[in-house]
Amino acid sequence: MAETVLYDVTDGVGTITLNRPDGMNSLTAEMKELLRATVVRAAADPAARAVILTGAGRAFCAGQDLREHAANLAAGKGLDDTVRRHYNPIVLALAGMRKPVVAAVNGVAAGAGASLAWACDLVVASDKARFATAFTGIGLAPDSGMSWTLQRLVGRAKAAELLLLGEPLTAPQALELGLANRVVPADELAPAAVELARRLAAGPTAAYGAVKAALDFAATHDLAAALEREAELQDECEKTGDHHNATDAFLNKAKPVFEGR
């Protein structure tokens, strides 16, 4: 049986591939456990200075596997605490990774699948991609951070519309709303995502991690606290070899070479 989550590192880029194409990469309990472990692995892997999250086949991720969920309902298990045990840790690991994460959305991203894409730092979408919140369509509330992420990307009113009505978005619509950073032809998605990730992998990884930490902190604190957190992060970055080397390169009118430390 093929692994449902694949991991590869090439040229400084770690690629996580959801690999259950016959099920539109919908997430079973086993797959969620493996995805969490793989995201944690990528976060800790010094060889991966940037990460891509993508799906095999025609879908990015259709969210929860509803056949498995229906069986749990029939057995009286309900959600089986999967939000706390699986989805929450996966999203926290993606968003909290101190390196940039690119979602390469090749097709449908629905429910938790859309949440996973929006938990990444940058979203590159195929022109055939579709995004849908999907939760209310099956009588559920949002999970996997969508209530937090979505309104910060599009504002509360639009987030409420997308969550309440559940109407799908095309890739161009997602781009217009700021839910995708780039839209490319389907056959150009993989190279476009790899090119972007390689660019990030060749950059100052510690500084990228500091950017993510600063944004996360500032999203839930006042200006004075955000200023102090920025000062702390600048102190951390000042001590890196990348900062010192890049400063010397600037003074010598040379192009800096970043080593990620």
Summarize the structure.
This protein is an alpha/beta fold.
SSE blueprint and pairings:
Blueprint: E1 5-10, E2 13-18, H1 29-44, E3 50-55, E4 59-61, H2 66-74, H3 82-96, E5 101-105, E6 108-110, H4 112-119, E7 122-126, E8 130-132, H5 146-154, H6 156-165, E9 169-170, H7 171-177, E10 182-184, H8 189-201, H9 205-218, H10 223-238, H11 241-251
Parallel strand pairs: 2-3, 3-5, 4-6, 5-7, 6-8, 7-10
Antiparallel strand pairs: 1-2, 8-9
Helix pairs in contact: 1-3, 3-4, 5-6, 9-10
What do you see in this structure?
Belongs to the enoyl-CoA hydratase/isomerase family. One of its GO terms (molecular function) is catalytic activity. This is Enoyl-CoA hydratase. It holds the Pfam family ECH_1. There is one protein chain. This protein is an alpha/beta fold. It has two domains: 5-201, Alpha-Beta Complex (2-enoyl-CoA Hydratase, Chain A, domain 1), CATH 3.90.226; 205-251. It contains eleven helices and ten strands. It has helices at 29-44, 66-74, 82-96, 112-119, 146-154, 156-165, 171-177, 189-201, 205-218, 223-238, 241-251, and strands spanning 5-10, 13-18, 50-55, 59-61, 101-105, 108-110, 122-126, 130-132, 169-170, 182-184. The strands form two sheets. It has a six-stranded mixed sheet, with helices on both faces. A hairpin with a 2-residue loop joins strand 1 (5-10) and strand 2 (13-18). Helix 3 runs parallel beside helix 4 and helix 5 (146-154) packs across helix 6. The longest helix is centred in the first third of the chain and has 16 residues, at 29-44. The protein is globular, with a radius of gyration of 19 Å. The termini are far apart. The mean pLDDT is 95.
